[in-house]
Design a protein that fits this description.
By secondary structure, the chain is mainly alpha-helical. It has one domain. 98% of the residues lie in helices and 0% in strands. It contains one helix and no strands. Keywords: Coiled coil.
Length: 104
């Protein structure tokens, strides 16, 4: 009976050791799962931030493109006005010369 009791005690001790090992393994896997979930949440937040920044950059690019188009239109208008003013100045100069000839 003493021998059976010793054997049972050994089996119980072994079973307890196995239970402790399994508990530690479960705790570690639970910690890993929690860490993974935290990393996933952080990554999802970073993705949202990057997506928002990307949309903001797209809006800025669209506005810059529109501004560039407007700038080209303004430059063309300026060129037309400069040409018109040059022609008017030449006509004014011609009229001034003609007036001077008439006066003499």
């Amino acid at each position: 009976m003493s021998q059976n009791l010793g054997k049972t005690h050994e089996e119980l001790s072994h079973a307890t050791d196995e239970r402790v090992k399994l508990s530690k393994a479960w705790l570690l896997s639970e910690e890993d799962r929690i860490d993974a979930n935290e990393k996933l949440a952080k990554t999802e937040l970073e993705l949202q931030e990057v997506t928002l920044k990307n949309k903001q950059l797209q809006l800025i690019c669209e506005k810059a493109t529109e501004a560039a188009k407007h700038s080209v239109e303004l430059q063309r208008s300026n060129d037309v006005l400069n040409n018109y003013c040059t022609e008017l100045k030449k006509k004014l100069s011609d009229l001034h010369e003609e007036l001077n000839r008439m006066v003499r």
